[in-house]
Amino acid sequence: MNDELTKAAQFVNRLLANPALGALPPLQKEEQILQFLQVNRQALFPTLSSPQFFPGYTWENITFIMEKALMETVNQNLVPQLQGLVENSLDLSFIAFLRQQNVSTDAVKKDLIRFLGELLSHPSVRREFSGSYNSLVYHVTDKYVEQVFERKEYVHFELTKVQRLRMGKEEVKNLIRVSLLLKPAVYLFSVPGTAQQEIQKSVSQPQFTDRVLHSLTDKLRCLPPEVLASAVHANLSFLDNQQLEATARISAIINNLCRNYRPDMPRDRGADTMEKSWLSVARKNHRFYGFDVKVLDEFYKIAGENNW
Amino acid sequence: MDKKITDILEGLVIFIIILVLIQTFLEDLSVLLAWTWSARRILLITGFFFDLFFTVEFLTRTYAAFSRGDLKKYLGQGLGWIDFLASVPLLVLSSGPGMVMVLSGTGLLFSSGGILNILKIVKTVRIARILRLLRVLKIFKQIKNVNSIMAQRHLMKITATSVSTLVLTLFFFNLFAGAVGMPQAGGILEEQYRVTMESFRSFRQDGGTAQAAAASRHQPDLLVIKEGETTLYSRYDNDYYHRHFGPGEYAYLEEGGVGFFFDLRRVQALEARNNLMYFTLILILTAVLLLFYSPHFALTVSDPIHVMNRGMEEKDYNFEVKIDPRFSEDGVFRLARNYNQVFLPMKDRQNREAETTAEDLQLKMADIKDLFS
Prior knowledge:
The complex is a heterodimer.
Chain A: H1 2-16, H2 26-39, H3 41-48, H4 59-89, H5 94-99, H6 105-120, H7 123-137, H8 140-151, H9 154-162, H10 169-182, H11 196-203, H12 206-219, H13 225-233, H14 246-257, H15 274-284, H16 286-289, H17 293-306
Helix pairs in contact in A: 1-4, 2-4, 2-7, 4-6, 7-10, 7-14, 8-10, 10-13, 10-14, 12-13, 13-14, 15-17
Chain B: H1 3-32, H2 37-68, H3 71-75, H4 80-85, H5 88-104, H6 107-111, H7 115-129, H8 135-142, H9 149-179, H10 185-207, H11 209-216, E1 222-227, E2 230-234, H12 238-244, E3 250-255, E4 258-263, H13 265-313, H14 331-353
Helix pairs in contact in B: 1-2, 1-8, 1-13, 2-5, 5-7, 7-9, 9-13, 10-11, 13-14
């Protein structure tokens, strides 16, 4: 098995190094390769089952080895990077504002890193983690929250008056960042082997998310329930529940915005900016995705004014 | 033909077009600034070879188009008519006769008879030279903008229309003016030369040759008066004539056994000035079209279409068209609004639900061929 895994690792390493995937973030590369294996199954199977690669293996066995090798290879860079982001860029002082008491943020960070490791071992979570990861790497939350606090319009009102977050903008940024990191956790509770689209439908059911929230509270006692609720509720439709936390609504939008985030993608002359384009489309499709259209409207204005 | 060789030849043609534009400018400037004949001679000879080159280029393209069976397309849509007008007539009417004059020295003009004949030949040569300005268009014709063939064609069309209208109007107007006998510098000068000759004759009768020759100094275009082998008057020494005068730059008239040589360079300088003005006008016109009209066309037509086209062809391309409020009611931007507000959201919803196909992925089977080798 180890030999096969080494062969598979060599193969996926070369796939990952392919210039066609050059500019993509690691999880998007992984997703591309997984889909590549899936859609080119018939063309790849004769070669991959040849003596040079995995003789006598079924396609299911080959993809299992490949997925395992791919996950391990991507994790070699992804996990330390994520760990670094949590340790160095994430400020968990907002917990003190929510719990009204001082907590050791180092212990919480350790717990969070451990839990993220657990999340990343689950394929269906990884598929949904791209948006969270990109939002952190490219500081997308920070720039929008910064503008929200400057403008003091709808989103600011929702955060401070409706959700009643009694904290500064830096704490709000970090609360949303944690909410984003934990948003894909609902996929941890999906039934293995279910198609991704089916999983997506089930995780957006309130009954399901209630159960998930309950389990998550047990798993992550270090985090206040408000944070976990924000993360889990980021998977629900605002149209079905107008009482969703503002941070959950923002997390849902930013996660989706960053799903295929490519700041390096060259913009054609005559085209609008990437974020403004995405937000404009999301405004039209807000019912489809269950987004709060007023948050989208404000973000759209922000993106337009800042040429994002 | 091999694409690489074709590209090299096309590159060579562009390079020669740039050279010929510089040569055109210098040729007129040299007349205006009265450069020495040896310098102008070089420019005349290079001009002839450029015309020869473009004539060969035109004939080659015509032959190739004829062989492919699309001669009509080349001459019309392919703007072969510009290639024709900027080559064959110039070789036949302008640089060809000019080259004959250079090679045959002064003989041609002396044998041509009266000043009107000389001026007519010079005039035809000069008028035909206007057609050289069409070569500015050849540069546009050679530029291959693969990103927007439509933008290139539109820009070419509007530039070709403006420049050729200007050049052909000047060309035919000058021909027409000559044909109907409109007042021209040559005609006016001829009258002046006749007066000069008449004055010389009457001064000579009244006060003798020396007095008549002295009086002739006041006529600035009179160069030499000769009677048989005897020079009665000469404005400059022989070396000066040798260095500064070429064939066609002086006129010879004879009356009563006395020969008069007149300087034609002032007329030619006036025409060179006009040519430079037309040349500058055309360069500025094309530059303005390129710098102002071309970006406007891109902004309002080709760029939005390009963005919409990519959005329709590529699954992951989801940029909206940026709509300039000044032109928001243009047909293109009304279409773009529908693209932004209807098509892209629909595509986004469809993408969310559709299964991924091989075409949707950035990684293709062709990218990994080397992995299996």
